[in-house]
Amino acid sequence: MQAWVIGNWKQNPATSHDVDALLNDLLTKVDAKNQAKMPTSNSQCKLMVAPSCIHLAAVSARLANTSIISAAQDVSAHSASIGAYTGDCSAQQVADTGATWTILGHSERRQYHKESHDCLINKLSHAFSQNLGVVFCIGETQEQYDNGQTLDVINEQLSVIKDMLVQQPDLAASLSEKLLVAYEPVWAIGTGKVPTVAEVSKTHQHIKQTVAGFADMADTVTVLYGGSVNADNADSFAADSMIDGALVGGASLKADSFLAVADAF
Ligand code: PEP
């Protein structure tokens, strides 16, 4: 299975100067690894970074013709193209920057922007209509984890994909290429707490089987783990065959720690 390591920069860095510095450091170190034929260059691991929408065009331009892919963190639910939606960026506008993927359904968007089931169906449809790949984030809260509800929550969140396919069955054929699922327990994001590898593995197996059932994909959906992944714990996640990569927040803001996670996969 193709491995992916994706940096979610969230509302960072503060200035375009800092974005340039991070990108330069990243590209210099990836080049050095390629020259030295170190793990990142040899492995199958694909790298992606998702800057804020204000920096997306510059980052996409800088990453054109490099091995690193650029992605948005969200697209508008209201229109795939243009319209009177103040503050939104459409999937078409994202694609126009040269970005080829978008994150959708991150827990911070679900929490702070109240993204609903129907809103996420629209976002997925709009992204796919503009030929963007989607990193679809799911995961339970601490309370849901404590109550043993992880798989129920995940089933509910994955039903967005099922319902989107009911509306647009033609998308099923390309889903294994255009969709990555990121399992991110909310309680593990930015907290330094992580589930055990065995717990993540079991949940990923469930996600793969469930999505395969929607789209007849025979277990081919890629599932990444996210939540406090760093240079120290990445190896343990990478060692499990159900964990196809990582969605990385805090540790993606430094080239060294991001590439250390990539080297693990
Ligand atoms: C995230 O928010 O997607 C994430 C994984 O964050 P962190 O790595 O900082 O926990």
Automatic annotation (TrEMBL):
A GO cellular component annotation in the UniProt record: cytosol
UniProt subcellular location: Cytoplasm
MF term (GO), any: triose-phosphate isomerase activity
First-tier enzyme category under EC: isomerase
Primary site of residence: cytoplasm
Alphabetical keyword list: Cytoplasm, Gluconeogenesis, Glycolysis, Isomerase
Record-annotated active site: H106, E184
UniProt-annotated binding residues for substrate: N8, W9, K10, G190, S228, G249, G250
Known pathway: Carbohydrate biosynthesis; gluconeogenesis; Carbohydrate degradation; glycolysis; D-glyceraldehyde 3-phosphate from glycerone phosphate: step 1/1; Carbohydrate metabolism; erythritol degradation
Pfam families membership: TIM (PF00121)
Oligomer status and interactors: Homodimer.
Protein's name in the database: Triosephosphate isomerase
Gene coding for it: tpiA
